Amino acid sequence: MSRKEGMHFFIKYIGVMLMFVSGIILLPVAVLPFFPEENKYLMSFFFPFAASFLVGFLMNKTRISDDCRMTVADASLVVVASWFFAIFFSSLPFVFGKILDFPHAFFESASGWTTTGLSVVDVEKIPRIFLLFRSLSQFFGGLGIVLVVVSALSETLGMTLFMAEGHTNRLLPNLAFSARMIIKIYFGYFIAGTVLYMVLGMTAFEAVNHTMTSLSTGGFSTRSPSIGYYDSIPVEILTIILMFLGSTSFNAHMLLMGGKVGKFFRLSEFRLSALTAVLSIIMLTCISHFYMNNSLEYSIRTAVFNSMAALTTTGFSTTAFDRWPDSAMLVMVVLMSAGGQIGSTAGGIKLERINVVLKEAAWSVRRKFMPEYMANKPLIVRAEGSTPVTAELFAEAATYVITFMVFLLIGTLSLTACGYSLRDSLFEFASALGTVGLSTGITRFDMPPAALWTLTVGMILGRLEIYVIFYAFMRIFKK
Q: Which one of 30, 50, 150, 170 has the lowest number of neighbouring Cβ atoms within 10 Å?
């Protein structure tokens, strides 16, 4: 692709993404008839909507050749720019509504679109139209901007962008049909979750918001104590189910929809997630019961919910983490870093990469003590079939794990330089980089600007899986 063609392609498809984002910005005004006292915020959403749509519409008028082809770096640049503009324009309603200044509004918008859930607003005080806006940004951010608009792209270009956004494989032969199937599945979950939350006692507004942020593994809540506000075991169970569905890969959902339950339970990522969850629940229960002197019932309940919230990178909570001992905090950091399944709405390193590294390590040990013909190469069971752990697959997984840990170290050091303790810095940046949203309480409106931007960068890096941003910068410097 020539430099001129590349620029035309970049402009056109950024325009497509911006028109989609403009629709998301306008959606919250639908609640104004139910909350007429908030009509004064209409223009706070209309002006960013109009600006985003107009800019996108004009950019989409750019002509590109039918045989246009792009590299991974080209696609990565489009994806990164799309997410940046989505976060930027979505921050404007907070600014125009005089809810937040720009740095804090950008942080809140980034936390929404990246499905992180860290927040600098008091959810008990801000208008409900902004609460819904935050939840909508998480819902569509979890699905992915590219995935939602991919039906507007050609098959070739759409697939390249689809892969660049972090999705692994198409589900069906036709990419646009695959995208529509994913959206139908999640909207089905959304309707079911909303109804069940209302049955369990939530208002319609609370049910809609919590369903969207559970499925997107985002964790924004309409209550300051999060899910702990409701103090309800049924609500916690439903939330765990929705969080699990959100952290499950799109391909695995197709197995469930197709009735292939047995094959679903044989998936390597599912088995590793189940094992990790069981071990973490046991450890957190023991720490809570024996070290913190909590009742066994309370310890089990707290361990189950919060470990699942961390592993699925959702970020809901039922307790305050600033009172937890270091041992429990370390378990949570590991869970937040591990994350959910590849191709899901969850963040983190992703369980498949960890599984590949663990299987390769185990195979290397066996090979030293067994005859070569007996040490069979390990397999990863995916929705599309079993895949051997090749040297290339291991190298990709190990490289990403190392890269993630390096950024975790850099971010932690940056927060300690802002005056926070090592414990708080590690937990908070692991939460940002894993797009989790759990906090020890240091993420506040009055936190230092350097810390605010450190967490913002961490959230974006985590959502776009680091390499996408690397490829985008490679494209910029190359041209």
A: 30
